[in-house]
What does this fold into?
Amino acid sequence: MSSAISMNKTEVIDSVLNDFSEGYFSISYENRRRLLLELAKEYDLDRTQVRELIKQYLGVSGEEAQSPGPEDEGVLASFYRIERNLRHALKPKYEALFERLNMHPGGLKFLTILRADILSIIAEENIVSLRALDSHLKEKLGTWLSPAALELHHITWDDPASLLEKIVAYEAVHPISNLLDLKRRLGVGRRCFGYLHPAIPGEPLIFIEVALLKNVAETIQEVLWDDPPIPESEANCALFYSISSTQPGLAGINLGKFLIKRVITLVKRDMPHISIFATLSPIPGYIQWLLSKLASQSNLAEDDKSQSSADTSGSTFGENLFEPEEEKAIMDISEEFAAGKNGMEVMLNLLTSTNQEWSKSAELLSVLKTPLLRLCARYLLQEKKRGKALDSVANFHLQNGAMVERINWMANKSEKGLHQSAGIMVNYVYRLENIEEYAQSYFSSGHIHASDEIRRFVEPLKKPEATAN
Amino acid sequence: MSSAISMNKTEVIDSVLNDFSEGYFSISYENRRRLLLELAKEYDLDRTQVRELIKQYLGVSGEEAQSPGPEDEGVLASFYRIERNLRHALKPKYEALFERLNMHPGGLKFLTILRADILSIIAEENIVSLRALDSHLKEKLGTWLSPAALELHHITWDDPASLLEKIVAYEAVHPISNLLDLKRRLGVGRRCFGYLHPAIPGEPLIFIEVALLKNVAETIQEVLWDDPPIPESEANCALFYSISSTQPGLAGINLGKFLIKRVITLVKRDMPHISIFATLSPIPGYIQWLLSKLASQSNLAEDDKSQSSADTSGSTFGENLFEPEEEKAIMDISEEFAAGKNGMEVMLNLLTSTNQEWSKSAELLSVLKTPLLRLCARYLLQEKKRGKALDSVANFHLQNGAMVERINWMANKSEKGLHQSAGIMVNYVYRLENIEEYAQSYFSSGHIHASDEIRRFVEPLKKPEATAN
It folds into this structure.
């Protein structure tokens, strides 16, 4: 196995690569970990050589602080030569193995499996050399899986069962319950498109499910269960209701962006009567964010009550997440349903109660609806991480050029839906004429485009924030 | 147009890339040259930044000459960080444009056209910055066109005319004279395979033509004109008689190697009765090499005659390229056909005579056959450049793992065949069991594997070389 790695200077024989990948599959997780660590540490770059070249480089640039003028072709040639060598020296030795595997039949698939293993190791342990290896492998995979190399495939009921079984296995958003369910998702009024790579035949790397509808759907129930579908010629809207990646080893490589763009172009061409391209998307991070916000703010509120405002504990003013009327309504029901010193604590207790009991009471639902929707709009439009939307699905669609259109109450009543986002789902809309402009402004300034309707949820909050009672 | 280049820091809008490529097509060669030069010089790397990072790097490595031990995770992390930054700083800015174009519909094709232009500019002028740009673009294209991303397509008479027209247009080895000729090359007893890339649909990047024969063909005439072909079930040999690249902009990127390997695997699988995989190949550099050898050696021979052997002119002993009996036979015919002070000068004059007159005389042919075949074997087996076979086609097949099997007299009587290689063609043979071993030894030591038959042409020469008379 080590011969595949160590044969860095010469052509590697195919059989060695075969042995390497077969050997890798046959060993335990612990031995894979050891092998990958050895690869990361022993087949890294040659730092002595880098230092040598760096000295040469400084020698050529001499004392001048400036780059050579355009006329100094001779000096320029020296720069190019040393830069080329330096660039080469900065490539870890294991890149050669990756490159060779990529050219080897089955090698690309093998590399995605290798990366999936690496990702699970570094999720457990922070090993810098393995992280460095991962970032190299990720970059390489990103290059090899460039959209230009991917084929858009319209997946139908006529496709081989071996391909369709992948769809069933990897549908990550709305699990496919049986063959009938799958058949409906590929039938009239529905489309499913996948990206195939020539080196990984019969297995879409990512696929998207589309429903052809009269209007932008508000709930996933109507997408998964509308029976019978409307005639396709009456559809105005192509609704993307699920997008799933099949390869854990391709995490962080955005294939979906190009898939969506190509699907829009294709649908537009085949069905010019379709003018709306929208999604019905989960909000996977909403409740997690809300719970941590409720917990911390509820504590702060208690601190504020018990301490003087001149206290130097370092906490800024606590913020009541609720409007006064919401706070009152929540406290009114607290006696019957859940205890709590304030509205936030009550909400926290309700949301963490077993079996999502809150969702089964009409009374609770009517009280919680307004604050949960409003805070969801705030989460989607205002909560950021490094200048980008905190919610991963929001960030995905916004960077692709979508806008936030509408949030929908009780749009996904499945256990997962209630758990992730209190059953709320969101429609992102792709407006053809704005996609590029929106992607651009989100990319450069983090600006999130949103409809007036959803913006209204958060704008009242812009008045001076109410402190805790 | 410049906006596509200068928007390096942000996402580029598709329409800008469209404008860029359309703009490029509309401008003159001279303006393209100016644009490419600007790209190479003004969008190069930032050398101030490189120098800055280099200083940081030397700071981290400090006085120690050694790399950090495996335990210094902290130091290692600093190394990784600066190395990553340095790697990034060493990327010229124009790489971002290439990467973006690659993801853009039609962009990959556009880049191959761009590179074809660059190659024709640097063939005329040696501009270092443009050469540097070319080597970056070549590397990128090589990555994007990795064999894993290419689809092997069996080209048949049922393919669209728009694809078949490309075969006719780009067949570089044995031009296709008419539709009937094309149909025969795709019909019974023949195969044609091409590599397609998803981003350049309907246009094979490279294709190979195969004849299914009883024996390894000796002449191209029998391949192109055998009528009718033998039943495929009786074939023992798959003969590769033509391999052509359609994209001048992909020069230097070896797609043929993988194509041949995949075609062998495919033919072997579909027709297990085929046991011999061979080529019938041109020897494009033979006569050019021979003429320059004849000219220089003929002059040396004259010098040696007129000067003393202690002379310090720096010339080593001249070498008569001919065996004594060949020399005699050539001088015997020189009176009738061509003048010359010695055999080499006579041969030089014969080979450079107009309309290849020498090939029309049976008498001349019988005299020239032995020395031309012998010198051809020497050219193929012994003449090297940087340790590799001097002949480009020989180098191509040898690096793919073939061996030199046989040379054939009057195997291509076309004007081109006579001009390039005095009508001689060569069979390279791919022996499945040796392909990898041969490729390996050629790669590492330049060793050329050859049959005993062809080796016999050159081994007598290993006796102490005869000096000029």
In short: The longest helix of chain A spans residues 286-306. Residues 2-147 of chain A form a domain with the Butyryl-CoA Dehydrogenase, subunit A; domain 3 fold (CATH 1.20.140.90). The first strand of chain A starts at residue 151 and ends at 154.
